[in-house]
Amino acid sequence: MRIKNLNLKNFRNYSDETIDFGAGLNVLYGKNAQGKTNCAEAVYYLCTGTSPRAKRDKQLIRHGSEYAEISAVAEGRYGRIEIYAKITETGRELRVNGNKIVRNADILGNLFAVFFSPRELRLIQDGPEERRRFLNVSISQLSRPYYIALVRYNRILEQRNNLLKDKNLDTVFDSLPVWDEELCKYAAVVARRRADFIEKLAPVARDMHSRLTAGAEELKIYPEKKYKGSEEELKHKLYTELSENYERDIRLGYTASGPHRDDIGIEIDGQDAKSFASQGQTRTAALSIKLAEMEIFKELSGEYPVLVLDDVMSELDLPRRKELVELTQNRQAIITCTHAERVLYGIEAFKIKIEGGKVKR
């Protein structure tokens, strides 16, 4: 998978700019606050239909403009792909190869990307919600059925939680089994796909971490709750778990078990990374997980995703920067930094200078 060009119109600080990319390593460089991260954000948006930074799409529109447009031409194993997004104050329009799409699920799986920015440290440092977000974004790009199941699960979960707050307990106890039957159908899909993904991810992340640390540390990733069995078996197990805890959930006013409460354990040399890892260890662990994600994409989709590394080099020591650049070989990567010469180490790259939302050719 490779992006040939990216066009940004009224997007963040870009007025109207086209950025051409090489097939291998691309380095976007320039001073801070010039638009390098905005470019990385646009790639992520076209892959997932969401921004990694903005809570609302309208925040992506350039100040003083009525709309923003993002488009890209890419080449994948199945040929040419054109993705287009127009964002207004009231909504958006998405097109893939000229065809208008209305569901976010339909933008997924067209353009694959693995994205790393300083925000990804939250994968290690923050609570379970961040680790579930990582799983959801990654697996959704690879599996539309997963994304659809996740959306339906969350919708039914919200309705179940509203029911648990009902003061009429007879209504609650009569209605819960009906809701739980549907909830567990989708919960089983979510739980099974996550378990399979983590099982593939863990050994690759361990190996990536070993490379980045020259074998000095060991990274371990594991699901804190293990789901075993087929989707049908998981459905029955989850249904039983919910039905045995009606009184607890009614007392709490929300559903206290299920995939929406799951977490991933992350350890470095046998210690909980969230509690004991230094800033450098946290960054290396998060980066190892993202690099492993790239390899899993290749295994499951048949081609490497575009690797987007936003402002990652400045906080890594020299050996880790060199090893990371080596790991980007033979695939398309987009790296943002302030000084191109500080990340290349003699490796050939396509250098793109960004200044004030413009490509300086």
Look up the CATH topology of the largest domain: Glutathione S-transferase Yfyf (Class Pi), Chain A, domain 2
Helix residue percentage? 40-55%
How many domains would you count in the coordinates? 2
Compute the average pLDDT.
Answer: 93
Radius of gyration: 22 Å
Kindly report the oligomeric state of this protein. single chain
Q: How would you spell out the order of helices and strands? A: EEEHEEEEEHHHHEHHEEHHEHEHEE
* Sequence of strands across the biggest β-sheet: 2-1-4-5-6-7
Name the structural class: alpha/beta
- Which regions contain 5 or more consecutive residues with pLDDT less than 50? none
Number of strands: 15
Global geometry: globular
CATH-defined architecture of the largest domain? Up-down Bundle
For the record, the CATH class of the largest domain is Mainly Alpha
Cα-to-Cα separation, first versus last residue: 25 Å
Describe the structure concisely:
By secondary structure, this protein is of the alpha/beta class. 44% of the residues lie in helices and 24% in strands.
